[in-house]
Amino acid sequence: MERLIYQNKVFGPYEYSDEDEFEQVILEHANDIFGPRSVFINIKKRIGEDNIVTIPDGYIIDFSFEKDPRLYIIEVELVTHDPYKHIGQQLLRFAISYKASGRNIKAFLLENVLKEKLKKDTVEQGFKKAGFRNIDAFFESIIFEKPVAAIVIVDQSTDDLANVLNQLTMKTDIIEFQTFISDRKSIFKFTPFQQEIRPLTEAKKPRIRVEDIDTIVVPANEEGFKEVFLKQKCWYQVRISSAMIERIKYIAGYQTAPISAITYFAEVVRVEKYKNTGKYVVYFKNKARKIGPVRLSKKDKGLAPQAPRYTSFRRLSSARTIGDVF
Fold first, then answer.
1. Between these two residues, 10 and 84, which has the higher pLDDT value?
2. For residue 162, which of 277, 245, 248 has the smallest C-alpha distance?
3. Which fold has domain 199-325?
4. CA–CA distance from 199 to each of 118, 251, 298 (Å)?
5. DSSP secondary structure string for all residues of 211-230
6. Residue 309 half-sphere exposure, CB side, CA atoms within 13 Å?
7. For residue range 262-294, what is the model confidence (pLDDT) as tens digits?
8. pTM (two decimals)
9. Most CB atoms closer than 10 Å: which of 30, 75, 282, 286?
């Protein structure tokens, strides 16, 4: 069982008494979880007809990609709940009834946004940057023209949950939100939504535009790099957000110390779910080709990839050091 130590105090896992308590904590930390580039709409409305009825726990309008804003439904669940009966059935019902309920969804989302100035201003700024003439045209697009996706927030992610979500055609992201407690003080552990690109979306002057991202850089030790990246023409167990899957056109391998450089790249042919996990396999179109090497310079020590990072192939191709890549 995990423990956290902070200021000489040991924090142990906290078990929520029920889903309502967990939902309240998620609501209190929504801005931290979803970030300033998203609008969280805390509204529960019954949608669907006859036996296909569902009530999502909320919605997110995400503006991480300025030219491609997206709508996500939110499901908040405890690990003690059966993922098949609760999360699986809820999302399946939503996927089936979504288009038929589109007009109702548009009506209550629009009403919620317009009555709160901060939400209204954020959405207005976002749809103008995306090129929509008004808020009505914007909602028409994200509801009827683009595929909806889901974000599942759980207190503990499991293989069973990943297996259930892998069976759905709707794209899903899992956010594991854990709570640790000591003497009535709490610490929260989670990976924020769109964590991989948030440094770009939240920076005043980003070094690379989010819309230009088309390359994922993955760290690898010598053995894994030779046996998998070079011989098997793939890289697996990669954590990728659903919004990034269609954007990845290239993959580059950063070989860890003592090499400390990006040495090979490959064109990506497809990205698939990896077994019963929330991770993916990236398959190459052809064998990886040499590049650079693009080395880690002394001034770039903090930029060495410890996990997958994103850049543009154009930027990678002209880079001399890792600092030029990111």
1. 10
2. 277
3. ph1033 like fold (3.10.590)
4. 22, 20, 22
5. GG--EEEEEE-HHHIIIIII
6. 19
7. 999 999 999 998 887 888 999 999 999 999 899
8. 0.86
9. 282
